Amino acid sequence: MVKHYQIKVLGMVQGVWFRKYTREAAETFNLSGFVENRSDGSVYVEAEGEEVNLKSFLGWLEKGSPLSKVEKVKWKEGNMKPYSKFSISR
User: Whole-angstrom Cα distance, residue 76 to residue 8?
Assistant: First the structure.
């Protein structure tokens, strides 16, 4: 079943290529959506795809990019949006 997740990643996740690696992971899991830095130091992600792929993506986010230090990943389901690819914002 296709779902939409709104995800907030907390920790040392800015300035460590987190968005680039997140886009690559999302593409690997065949997800669409976007990733962006937030002013509070977190990273925000919206991702859509098959639920099994979203769950795998959440597992990847808990580890993060090679230089990141993820402390917490919060997520909730949201409404579907017409994303056609996964992009980096800001």
Answer: 9
Q: Is 37 a catalytic residue?
A: yes
Q: Which is the catalytic residue, given 23, 30, 37, 79? A: 37
Looking at the whole model, is its pTM more than 0.90?
yes
Domain ranges of the chain: 2-80
Is 79 an annotated catalytic residue?
no
CA distance 43 to 8: 6
What CATH architecture applies to the domain 2-80?
Answer: 2-Layer Sandwich (3.30)
pLDDT at 14 > cutoff 90: yes
Residue 44 near residue 34, CB atoms below 8 Å: no
Judged on CB neighbours under 10 Å (0-12, 13-18, 19+), 75 is: middle
Residue 76 three-state SS: strand
